[in-house]
Write a structure and sequence with these properties.
Layout: H1 3-22, H2 27-36, H3 41-51, H4 53-62, H5 71-93, H6 97-116, H7 118-132, H8 140-156, H9 161-172, H10 177-202, H11 207-227, H12 233-252
Helix pairs in contact: 1-2, 1-11, 2-3, 3-10, 3-11, 4-10, 4-11, 5-8, 5-10, 6-12, 7-9, 8-9, 8-10, 9-10
Length: 253
């Protein structure tokens, strides 16, 4: 690993942490950065998942009070998220490098599209909650049935996972958005921790890059939390989407 590689990995981790704190979609920066550094695509995805776990820890801890709303169904959802995250990570590790590389551009494009419509999705969910009036009970089995495939996706690739979970939970739960977002953050944390734990045992983690990016992603997340009120999430989101689409085209060819 050259000094330049260290600098690029550190900047990628910091940028991903900052973007996740402000707008979401940091994986669309950190994953292609690892590939550009010469890490094979599948190994880069594994390493990226492990490296960005610290950011999810901070996000989940910051919103733990809002989670009290879901105390009655939290255990079941956490179990489903863990099973899905493990299932996705097992699928990834047992996929061939060639298959994963073929899927990557489509996964990135899907994540970019989700990121592009994130604000419209939030507005739609807010209008829906206003129309519903008082919160109503939703069958837990329905929620878990939809959280499971989202969790599998998160364990397999993960870019845009928060957007997918927010869409599923927001359509089924009639609670204020901050509370729904807190549940999304916890489930994202569980999915990524379980996937990262499996990846650690898989032998496919590039520990040199993972260690560097884990530290800088944590610093980036802290910086993004402080700058969230100053930076424009829409501008950063547009930048990440544009970059992600360029990366997807690059993978196609």
């Amino acid at each position: 690993m050259s000094p330049l590689d260290v600098v690029v990995a550190a900047l990628a981790g910091f940028t991903a942490g900052l973007i996740n704190a402000v707008a979401g979609g940091g994986t669309l920066v950190s994953f292609p950065a690892l590939v550009a550094l010469g890490v094979p695509a599948l190994e880069a995805n594994v390493t990226n998942t492990v490296a960005l776990v610290p950011g999810y820890i901070g996000s989940a801890m910051a919103q733990r009070k809002e989670l009290l709303t879901y105390a009655s169904r939290l255990k079941g959802l956490v179990v489903v998220a863990a099973i899905g995250g493990l299932g996705g990570s097992v699928l990834l590790v047992n996929s061939s490098e060639e298959l994963f590389e073929r899927l990557v551009p489509y996964l990135i494009i899907g994540a970019c599209l989700g990121l592009a419509v994130q604000e419209r999705l939030k507005a739609m969910l807010a209008r829906r909650r206003e129309a519903q009036g008082e919160p109503s009970e939703t069958r837990s089995l329905t929620i878990m049935a939809l959280v499971l495939p989202a969790s599998i996706y998160g364990g397999y690739f993960g870019a845009g996972l928060g957007i997918v979970l927010l869409a599923v939970l927001g359509l089924l739960l009639h609670d204020p958005l901050p509370q729904v977002n807190s549940l999304k953050s916890l489930l994202s944390f569980v999915i990524n921790v379980v996937a990262a734990a499996f990846f650690v045992m898989s032998g496919k983690v590039d520990w040199g890059f993972a260690a560097i990016m884990a530290v800088t992603s944590l610093l980036g997340g802290a910086a993004g939390g402080r700058l969230a009120q100053r930076l424009s999430p829409s501008v950063m989101r547009a930048t990440v989407v544009t970059f992600g689409l360029i990366v997807a085209v690059r993978f196609f060819f």
